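Lab notes, practical 5.
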Amino acid sequence: MSILSGKKVLLGITGGIAAYKSAFLVRLLIKAGASVKVVMTESAKDFVTPLTLSTLSKNKVYSSFTDEEQEGEVWNNHVDLGLWADLMIVAPATANTLSKMTTGTADNFLLATYLSAKCPIYFAPAMDLDMYVHPSTKNTFDTLKSFGNIMISAGFGELASGLVGQGRMAEPEEIVSFVEKDILSKLPLKGKRVLITAGPTYEAIDPVRFIGNHSSGRMGYALAEKAANLGAEVFLISGPTHLDISHSLIKLVRVTTAEEMYNATHQVFNQVDIAILSAAVADYKPAEVADQKIKKKTATMHIDLVPTQDILASLGKNKKNQFLVGFALETNNEIDNAKKKLASKNLDAIVLNSLKDKGAGFGNTTNKVTFIDKNLNNIPFPLKPKTEVATDIFNEILNRLND
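Output from the prediction step:
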C-alpha cells in the first residue's frame, strides 16, 4: 500500500506539451489508492481532453468558474475544492502559471484554487531549456519555495523545441515517487519501528477443538495501518483472524498460540521503539493436547489448564527505551484494575476498554477507550470507529514521546 492511499489529491494541469503525460499521472495516483480531482486551464485542453481525465479519475474535471453547458450556470466553488485536497500537484507547471502563482494572480480557475488551498503544494516545471535557466524563472522557483511549495525538478532530455537539456517535466512515475518520499520524510514516526500484536490466540485441546476468544483483530490491524501511515516500520504479529493487510511498511507475522506469539514478540522487541500489545492472548492452555479427536462421552469432561506465558509482563521486565503500551479489557472496577496492570507490568501506558460499554470490545468495528499513562493521567474517548481510536492512541503516544 502506498502512503498516498486514502489521500485526496488535486492535480492542476497547465497548457504545455507535457500535459499529455497527465493522463498517466492520474492513473498512477489512482493505482496508489488516492482520490483524484483535476483542475486544468483552458489551454491545457489543447493537449489532453477533460473526458480522458474525468474517465480516469472518475471525477468531474474543472476548468472554469461556471458550468455553462448545464441548464442555468452552476458555480464551481474553488474554495471548497482547494480545502478538499490533502495535497495539490501542478504538473505540468508552465513558466506562465508559475509566475502568476508567485504574484497571486487569479485569472483562471486553477490559480484561484491554488490560492485557496491549505495543503502542501507540489509543482513540476515543464518548459524549454532557455526558459528554465532564465534568471526570472529561477527567481520564480525560489519565490515559490519560500512560500513553502515543493519543487519537483525538471529532467534532462530532448525538449519539444528539439533542444536537449533541462526543462523536461519529470515522468509521472518520478512525480509519484517524489511525493511519496517527501510525505514519508516528514511523518512523525519516520525512522521508528513499531511492534503491534493483534487478534486472539488459539490453544489446542485436540486436533479439532481449541480454547479461544471472540477477538476479531480489528483494533490491532487499525493500529498497524495508522503506525505505517505515520511513517513507521511495523511488525504486526497476528493471531488467527480473517483480516489481511497490505502496506509496504508492514511486516505481517501470523501465529496461532500464545507461545508462538511470545516467541515472535521477543524476536523483534529489542529492535523497536514502540510496542502496543492489543492481542487478546489466552491466559490458560490445556496441560496436555490430545493427538486424536476426543470422543463425546456421557460423563462430565474435565480439562486441566496451565497458565500461558505473560507476554506483556515479560516485555515490561526486559524493556529498555521502548514505549510499551498494553490493553486491558475489564468488566468491573475497570480503572483500578487497569492501573494495577499498568504498574505491575511496567508499562508506559494502558488502553482500557470495558465490555459494559455498548459498541466496545470484541467483534465490533467501534471501540470506546480510556488512555491511561504511567503518571495515571486518564484520557477518556467517546465511542468511535476503531480506525479513529487508533489515531487517538497514537496522538497520545506521540504527545508523550515529544515531551
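Observations recorded by the TA: The chain is about 30% helix and 25% strand. The CA atoms of residues 8 and 127 lie 27 Å apart.
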